[in-house]
């Protein structure tokens, strides 16, 4: 074998070249310094060299990282100390081919790579597995990049192929976030930056909700090393305040159905031809067509205030040149306050409806209208959400060069992520008020903004009063304790053996408590409220970017109110303060999951001096994981019919479950790359990777939905601690042409075969011996009296009038709309309530394949350049809109593209970026927990950044995010089935930065 290997006498081994290249890429606080350091000591006779800085240096370092790594790797390197290309790390990642992002409130939050969603991409901080918590996505594994500021980040590395030395969890990619260290950039370096942020989305919310017009950002970085190079310290800190908003119109609970055109289900489907009401249907869905009917529709305005604090301290000590130790502490805090007001209506699917329909096999109405015999409610809702997320990480690292051929590394850290309420009202809180004045109600879906009309509504005659409420307190904490020992041993002349052992202990705990008032028919009298407590606003003004906002048929007003004032007035009127406060003392549900993983790996790397020189890396990783789930849940005790369609559950007592499971994985990794020419590289890779199921999929314990529906019954969910991780067999091929120092063109092909995918399964079952009054003896008597199943007011009025005082029936009065108020509780003789229970199992397989085309080109020394990439992703496993059963499909699968124009000289730097993502499946369950697709429409956004160097120390920046003011939309089974549309707005930042 030895004669075929490269020798040091001929040329340096690739291993040494890689080490130099990576070292240069990692010295990212000052790319120009890295290039200076790489020069020969004597340059007397050398040709003049151009030292590049800023964007060009960043692109060159990124290109070197891609070229000299094992496997397919992409990345982004900071342009300078404290100057990352984008204000948000996720927004930087979306510039990389194959990477798409999910946005929240106009800001990048989570990433999808090569069609695999956020839960299947592993995020590391300096090579360490990090915990994550997110109350908006309770118990997921996806890392929320909005928690990290970009100022302290020196580099992002995206590993798209499996490597034996990489921790498991990233099927799509493993993303390593690297922070700056003082020894990477010797000497003293420091800078201070300030920004003023103008978020125009804040201007589009009601005046009573909006925050400050301009908010501040400030950051500072200090890095220094001792003269003898033995000590180093780096400190970075940032504070960012942002006041923003977004306005959304949509069906929060999705559509009722789908129903078959020929189906006959009393009270829920369209009248059949010849039946009363059928004459009001235009272009009725065909007998073999599937159709859906809107369940509710609302217009909401959301004002958001965020305060984000980040800090990192790094200490390095090198007692001898062979030993480098690093101690670092990272802290982040993200506080978000959301104030929301909403106006919404519910449809009862009455036989007196009028509707028009498109042609097709899967349809939803173009227009839909219902007529009611008694006044219905117009919901006027206010919400006050406040959450705080903290991340803390303490780590220690030691690298020891034991001999010229042996290097050892030890790394350990203890990291936590914790999210909880940041308000005396809890984490998520809603007050529902109502005016019982709605008559005929129509909705028109033929506009970009669906139009709700209520011509007979009269809020003066029927003033707003309190209805139901919900005070929710959520909490989640995740802890990662990890220790790793790594080594690298040089063998022969151009080979090395990498090896390592690791232990990771991950725990995740999630709890919640809920205080709910199910007084949807009215909890107070209108006279309990001062006349000025609710303010009317022009509804259409909040959706001016959407066609239809100026429609004369649009209901004219959206009502806002002060949450704290209305909460206090309502609690005083009801005479029960505890009913309008969260329960911080006890939890209704407490779920804990622990994963203990022991791992080991070997990797043998060799350079081959064959006709076509190539490099091989052959490795294997072995992991053993034990899962322990402990869950406390709240059993249901009764079902109570309190209002027109609501069947809230009563709860009591406690139940516990404890489950253990374990699994072992052997994961090979083969990476090959051949130098076809000095500027042309061919790569091939085969590897097996795993992605663990979400924590909520693994956590045991049965959880019941708090409110069942008269027509659809109840909902429940339960995890499966015995779920195995998804295993993916990955094939990758890449051809890369490095035709210039700062230019590259590449084509990558990939194919993934995934097994053990945890598909969602809906099981129809009865639970806890819960009986529903729907279908019971009282209900049957009401039907016999002439009431229909669709007219729930008639049914309730009959039961409360004729059976008041009988077991389970209690009449409490008359509501403002003239209907009787009271409760009807399920009896042991009544039918058992049916629950649609969501659970998970390893029963799915899928394939994902695609291609990435990438070009980076700098036009000589002109200062102009362009980056462009396109990613095509395909899977034969797609959601079938014509299938009403529960089904599995890969979420987040979409094509994407980026085009970035660049200009830079010694004074100016300009970057104009367009990012596009095609339509993708966002969920397979709608807002009401039913099996139904949720698609996110294609979206494109333009971002611009301009920098001006006043002198070598002082620079100015101007940035614009979403300059084209793009809006977002989601739809259901058909493209016309609008689920929601969202309007936000551009964000502008102007700042200055001073380097000392």
From TrEMBL:
Q: Kindly state which keywords UniProt assigns to this record, in alphabetical order.
A: Cell outer membrane, Membrane, Receptor, Signal, TonB box
InterPro entries registered for this protein in UniProt? Beta-barrel_TonB (IPR000531), Beta-barrel_TonB_sf (IPR036942), Plug_dom (IPR012910), Plug_dom_sf (IPR037066), TonB_rcpt_bac (IPR010104)
- Statement: the UniProt record of this protein carries the keyword Membrane: yes
* One Pfam match: TonB_dep_Rec_b-barrel
- In this protein, which residues make up the domain named TonB-dependent receptor-like beta-barrel? 469-963
Question: What's a single GO CC term here?
Answer: cell outer membrane
Where in this chain does the record put each TonB-dependent receptor plug domain? 66-167
Q: Keyword check for Cytoplasm, yes or no.
A: no
Query: What protein family is recorded?
Result: Belongs to the TonB-dependent receptor family.
Question: Which interval of the chain is the signal sequence?
Answer: 1-34
The superkingdom listed in its UniProt entry is Bacteria
UniProt-listed CDD domains: ligand_gated_channel
The protein's name is: TonB-dependent receptor
User: Where, subcellularly, is it found?
Assistant: Cell outer membrane
């Amino acid at each position: 074998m030895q004669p075929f290997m490269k020798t040091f006498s001929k040329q340096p081994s690739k291993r040494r070249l890689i080490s130099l290249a990576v070292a240069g890429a990692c010295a990212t606080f000052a790319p120009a310094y890295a290039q200076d350091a790489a020069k020969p000591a004597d340059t007397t006779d050398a040709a003049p060299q151009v030292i590049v800085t800023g964007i060009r240096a960043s692109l060159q370092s990124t290109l070197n990282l891609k070229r000299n790594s094992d496997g397919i790797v992409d990345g982004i390197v900071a342009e300078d100390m404290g100057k990352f290309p984008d204000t948000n790390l996720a927004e930087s990642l979306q510039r990389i081919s194959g990477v798409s992002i999910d946005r929240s409130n106009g800001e990048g939050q989570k990433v999808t790579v090569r069609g695999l969603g956020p839960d299947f991409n592993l995020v590391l901080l300096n090579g360490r597995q990090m915990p994550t918590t997110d109350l908006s996505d309770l118990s997921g594994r996806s890392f929320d990049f909005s928690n990290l500021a970009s100022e302290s980040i020196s580099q992002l590395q995206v590993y798209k192929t499996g490597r034996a030395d990489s921790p498991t969890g990233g099927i799509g990619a493993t993303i390593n976030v690297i922070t700056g260290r003082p020894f990477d950039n010797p000497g003293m370096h420091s800078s201070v930056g300030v920004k003023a942020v103008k978020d125009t989305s804040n201007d589009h919310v009601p005046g009573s909700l909006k925050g400050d017009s301009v908010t501040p950002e400030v950051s500072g970085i200090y890095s220094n090393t001792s003269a003898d190079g033995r000590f180093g310290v780096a400190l970075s800190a940032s504070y960012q305040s942002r006041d923003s908003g977004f306005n959304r119109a949509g069906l929060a609970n999705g559509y009722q159905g789908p129903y078959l055109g020929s189906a006959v289900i009393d009270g829920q489907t369209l009248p059949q031809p010849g039946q009363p009401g059928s004459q009001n249907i235009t272009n009725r869905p065909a007998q073999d067509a599937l159709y859906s009917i809107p369940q509710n529709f609302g217009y909401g305005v959301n004002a958001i205030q965020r305060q984000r604090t980040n800090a990192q301290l790094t200490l390095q000590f090198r007692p001898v040149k062979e030993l480098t130790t690093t101690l670092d502490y990272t802290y982040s805090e993200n506080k978000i306050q959301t104030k929301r007001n909403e106006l919404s209506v519910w449809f009862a699917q009455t036989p007196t409806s009028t509707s028009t329909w498109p042609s097709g096999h899967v349809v939803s109405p173009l227009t839909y209208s219902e007529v009611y015999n008694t006044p219905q409610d117009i919901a006027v809702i206010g919400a006050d959400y406040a959450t705080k997320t903290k991340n803390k990480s303490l780590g220690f690292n030691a690298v020891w060069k034991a001999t010229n051929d042996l290097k050892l590394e030890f790394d350990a850290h203890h990291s936590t992520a914790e999210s909880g309420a940041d308000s005396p009202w809890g984490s998520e809180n809603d007050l529902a008020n109502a005016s019982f004045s709605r008559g005929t109600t129509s909705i028109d879906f033929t506009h970009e903004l669906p139009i709700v009309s209520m011509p007979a509504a009269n809020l003066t005659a029927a003033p707003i009063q309190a209805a139901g409420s919900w005070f929710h307190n959520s909490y989640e904490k995740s802890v990662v304790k990890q220790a790793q020992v790594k080594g690298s041993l040089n063998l022969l002349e151009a080979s090395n053996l990498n090896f390592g052992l690791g232990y990771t202990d991950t725990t995740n705990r999630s709890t919640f408590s809920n205080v709910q008032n199910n007084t949807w028919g009215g909890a107070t009298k209108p006279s309990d409220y001062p006349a000025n407590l609710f303010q009317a606003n022009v509804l259409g003004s909040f959706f001016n970017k959407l066609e239809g906002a100026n429609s004369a048929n649009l209901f004219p007003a959206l009502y806002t109110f002060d949450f704290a004032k209305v909460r206090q007035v309502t609690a005083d009127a009801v005479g029960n303060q505890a009913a309008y406060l969260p329960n911080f003392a006890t939890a209704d549900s407490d779920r804990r999951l622990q994963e203990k993983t022991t791992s080991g790996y070997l990797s043998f790397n060799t350079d081959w001096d064959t006709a076509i020189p190539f490099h091989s890396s052959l490795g294997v990783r072995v992991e053993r994981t034990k899962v322990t789930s402990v869950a406390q849940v709240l059993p249901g005790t009764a079902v109570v019919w309190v209002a027109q369609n609501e069947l809230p559950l009563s709860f009591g007592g406690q139940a516990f479950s404890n489950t253990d499971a374990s699994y072992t994985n052997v994961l090979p990794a083969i990476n090959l790359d051949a130098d076809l020419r000095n500027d042309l590289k061919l790569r091939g890779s085969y590897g097996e990777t795993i992605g663990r199921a979400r924590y909520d999929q693994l956590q045991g314990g049965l959880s019941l939905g708090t409110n069942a529906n008269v027509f659809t019954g109840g909902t429940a969910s339960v995890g499966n601690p015995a779920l195995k991780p998804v295993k993916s067999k990955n094939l990758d091929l890449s051809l890369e042409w490095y035709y210039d120092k700062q230019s590259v063109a590449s084509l990558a092909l990939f194919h993934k075969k995934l097994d053990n995918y945890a598909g969602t399964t809906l099981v129809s079952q009865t639970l806890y011996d819960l009986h529903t009054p729907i279908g019971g003896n009282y209900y049957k008597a009401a039907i016999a009296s002439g009431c229909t199943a669709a007219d729930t007011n008639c049914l309730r009025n009959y039961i409360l009038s004729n059976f008041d005082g009988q077991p389970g029936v209690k009449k409490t009065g008359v509501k403002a709309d003239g209907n009787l108020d009271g409760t009807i509780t399920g009896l042991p003789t009544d039918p058992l309530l049916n629950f649609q229970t969501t659970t998970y199992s390893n029963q799915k397989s899928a394939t994902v394949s695609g291609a990435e085309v990438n070009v980076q080109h700098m036009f000589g020394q002109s200062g102009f350049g362009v980056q462009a990439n396109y990613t095509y992703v395909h899977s034969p496993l797609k959601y079938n809109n014509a299938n009403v059963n529960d089904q599995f499909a890969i979420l987040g699968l979409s094509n994407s593209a980026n085009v970035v124009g660049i200009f830079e000289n010694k004074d100016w730097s300009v970057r104009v970026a367009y990012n596009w993502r095609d339509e993708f499946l966002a969920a397979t369950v709608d807002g009401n927990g039913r099996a139904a697709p949720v698609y996110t429409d294609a979206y494109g956004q333009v971002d611009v950044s301009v920098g001006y160097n006043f002198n070598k120390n002082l620079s100015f920046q101007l940035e614009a995010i979403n300059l084209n003011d793009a809006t977002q939309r989601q739809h259901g089974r058909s493209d016309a089935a609008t689920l929601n549309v969202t309007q936000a707005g551009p964000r502008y930042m102007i700042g200055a930065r001073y380097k000392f």
